[in-house]
Amino acid sequence: MTRWTGREARLLRLALRKTNKQFAAMVGISTRQLTTWEQRGETLFLHTANQLALDTILSRADPASQERFATLLTERAAVEADARVEELLSSRAHTVRHPVDNTLMVLVEEGVYLSGPDNRSVWLDGYLIDVYPTTNRDYAQFVKATGHPPPQHWPGGRCPTALADHPVVWVSWHDANAYAHWAGKELPSSAQWEKAARGTKGRVFPWGDAATAAKCNTAEAEIGATTPVSRYQSGVSPHGCYDMIGNVWERCSTQATDGPDRYELKGSAFTSPLQRSILWLRNAANAGMRDNDTGFRCVKQAQAGGIT
Q1: What count of other Cβ atoms lies within 10 Å of the Cβ of residue 57?
Q2: pTM of the model
């Protein structure tokens, strides 16, 4: 998680071209509190919840706003030595906004990674993968554009505001595949998913080899429901992907070997114990199955030269 001060918050507000009132509403604070941030500038390090909110706002900003923010930071870096400036700039070096569904995607470069419990060397071509699982807000764009039936838990067929940043659930493999095709993407193969989750060196969990339940939304958290996709910053994978363990099982394009019309699931969910979340473990479900703990994210083949 980036360490934000009041001054970086002000630069982000300027980059987004928002008034104090508009920006305070985006962060979830009062206008008076925002004024205090900006007055105290670099002397005020923000609380964790506010830093998470600013990270999320920046990651979801349009490319022009992100570029303006980077320019403002760079201008400041020219006159002040501040390691946090480099952190804010470098953390987005390999991400891109997808032009159809506007999701943030990260490049997983071509090469070998260590796969499975025996750490076999496997080569994969480069690809882009969604940083976050597909959210209810993302899926609402697809429903609106195509007329596809909405998930059963949306009241009146509309995306609930309180769940907008939670992963979409109650969607079948066919629903997920239809979304991917609409967006010009694909569901990941189990190998693509595993590499994005483990990195290249065979980690047991996205953050390393230690079984640390606090880094994800699994059964040990006792939340009993989905959480916002950007919540678990300390559980991010080496490639920068969130929720590769916990929150929701994620559907893959790889067909399972235990029966027809079944596809692999990866990552576990809020209903699963942490030990069921080891990244090479296999699970599968029928293509038509819908439930409250299964969602998806998408991939796209990288063009020559990386992100385009």
Answers
A1: 18
A2: 0.71
